[in-house]
Structures are given as structure tokens and as C-alpha cells.
Amino acid sequence: MQLSVKHLLGIRDLTGQDIQLILDTATEFKEVLQRPIKKVPSLRDVTIVNLFYENSTRTRISFELAEKRLSADTINFTASGSSVSKGETLLDTVNNILSMKVDMVVMRHSASGAPHFLAKHIPAAIINAGDGINEHPTQGLLDAFSMREKLGRLEGLKVAIIGDIMHSRVAMSNIYLLKKMGAEVMVAGPPTLIPKYIREAFDVRVEYNLRKALEWCDVANVLRIQLERQNQVLFSSLREYSLAYGINKQLLDSLPKEIVIMHPGPINRGVELDSDAADSRQSIILQQVENGVAVRMAALYLLSGGRGISA
């Protein structure tokens, strides 16, 4: 089987079959990662450039490790210290890199739509590693993979996405994916951090009361407050936010059922999640990080055409 798309620009572009294929392929790669030798020759002779115009820790390391596990040749590019600081355009930068015979581009950019712009102008396959407040497709995929691994299914799951929905590309990718795979989705947080149009546009529930959201859901995917993307004051203080929307172990223990806690990282401990909740047995945050490598291996492998997983 093959993906219906040449690029992975967003979950919005994928079919349910595409998502299923990526998740199933990731399951195979997770088995590879448990072996003593965690490397396969699937992308030997494929050259990939990691083009990061925005800071990143988990996503960047995860992609680099996935590429190495697949035996790809990699080039790592950061905007700081490059000709971008001298005024070089995005298209010029990429065309210069492509002239070195690059096959795939993994790209993170602060401008929404930047990977889509490149996809129209260059022949290489592009994976969106996060663009502005638009989408972060591999995060949505690894979150779904982690839910399916923990709970055995996506269809019929009740998932609450809690926090700064307005500025979160992770929220958008999760909503698109979960709806396509038959899950029920709720967004929860302060009214100022939830877009007014989201209920009708995405067919999701909206809840402003944290306890009600947690009592409803099977999984709580908790997001950080993205202060760097906010250009106006949307709540009075982080302390007030924590008091109203922060999750701790005492709150989790008081719920009528045990729920799963997730977070895409980085966690602002003591704001949206206390350490006792983030590090509890209900949390699968570290499993998300681990699963990110397998999911990104699957995406790279399938976009390259897929030439055999086993070593």
C-alpha cells in the first residue's frame, strides 16, 4: 500500500486509510527499535535535509534519530548562522540545498503555510515539522499512535484537548486526525484561548470548566500556554490559569474514573500540569516521545516509496 499524498503537509490532506497505514507501519518500526541493532537499510542512499527555522528539541532530535535508524544521509540546517540572516529568501535557500541533490525536506517554520509554498515550487518530498499555528502532523500521528497503543482503539474514544487551543498547531492536527478516525473530541480552556468558530467548523465539543472536561474524557491531551505566539493579554496571570486549569494528582484521583494524561511538550510544570500528574502512572508522556521516532520513521519510509523494512 502507498500513501495518497506525495508530501506530509498536514493531517487535513490525509485519508483515513493513509492514517491507518502510517500507524500500522509505525507499529512495525517500533518492533525494529526494540532490537539489539536498531537500524534498517530502508532509506540507504536517500538524502534528507532537516530545515528548521524555529527552535525545537524533541521534534528535531526525533526526526534525526528516525533518519539515522533508516540509514538515510542527513543534513541539518538552522536559520541562525545561515545565509538567511543575510537576507536570503526561503525559496533560494531550499533551491541551493536541492542543487546538492536532496530527496526529502523536513521543515519547521514560524509562518503558517511555508511547507505548502515549498511543495508547489520544488520536486523533493516535504514533511511539515510544524508551521506557525497551522499544523504539526507528525505530532498528531504520534499522539494517535500512543492513544491506540494504550487503549487499543481510536474509534469511540473521548479525547479532551485542554489549554491554548487558539495558538496550537498540535490541537489542529489532533482534531483533524481524531475526527477522521471516529473519536469524539472536546476542546477545553479559558474562553479567550478557544476560537469562537471551532464548535461549528470542526464539530467538536467546547467546555470552559476543567473538571467537567476531565469527567467526560478517556484521554486528556494537555497543551502549554504559548506566550510567544500571543500578541495580547488573554488571561490575568499564569498563577490564575494554573488555579483554574492546572491538573494535579489530587484532581485526577478525585475523578470517577482513571483517565490517560498526555502532553506534546515542553511541559510548563506547575502551570498546566503539576509534576505529580505528569510523572504519574496515568501519564504516557514519555511513551509519546518514544513513539515519535517510530511514527516519523513510518512517515519518512512511506513518503520515500517504501523499499522493505526488515534488515
Which labels suit this protein?
about 300 residues, four-stranded parallel β-sheet, Rossmann fold, 2 domains, about 40% helix, alpha/beta, five-stranded parallel β-sheet
Describe the protein's architecture and organization.
The chain is of the alpha/beta class and 311 residues long. The chain has two domains: 11-134 and 290-303, Rossmann fold (3-Layer(aba) Sandwich), CATH 3.40.50; 137-285, Rossmann fold (3-Layer(aba) Sandwich). It has twelve helices and nine strands. It has helices spanning 16-33, 58-69, 90-98, 114-119, 137-151, 169-180, 198-202, 210-216, 238-245, 249-253, 275-278, 285-303; strands at 47-52, 73-78, 104-109, 125-131, 158-162, 184-188, 205-207, 219-222, 260-262. It starts with 15 loop residues before the first helix and ends in an 8-residue tail after the last helix.
Topology summary:
Layout: H1 16-33, E1 47-52, H2 58-69, E2 73-78, H3 90-98, E3 104-109, H4 114-119, E4 125-131, H5 137-151, E5 158-162, H6 169-180, E6 184-188, H7 198-202, E7 205-207, H8 210-216, E8 219-222, H9 238-245, H10 249-253, E9 260-262, H11 275-278, H12 285-303
Parallel strand pairs: 1-2, 1-3, 3-4, 5-6, 5-8, 6-7, 8-9
| Terminal Cα span | 20 Å
CATH topology heading of the largest domain:
Rossmann fold
Number of strands: 9
What characterizes the major β-sheet? Answer: 5 strands, parallel
- Assembly state: single chain
Mean pLDDT: 92
Overall body shape: globular
Radius of gyration: 19 Å
How many structurally independent domains?
Answer: 2
Q: Please trace the helix and strand order, writing H or E for each element.
A: HEHEHEHEHEHEHEHEHHEHH
Poorly predicted regions: none
User: In terms of structural class, how would the helical and strand content be classed?
Assistant: alpha/beta
CATH superfamily of the largest domain: Aspartate/ornithine carbamoyltransferase
Report the CATH C-level class of the largest domain. Answer: Alpha Beta
- Describe the strand arrangement of the main beta sheet, using strand numbers: 7-6-5-8-9
Number of helices in the DSSP assignment: 12
Secondary-structure arrangement, i.e. CATH architecture of the largest domain: 3-Layer(aba) Sandwich
Give helix % range.
25-40%
Beta-strand share of residues: 5-15%
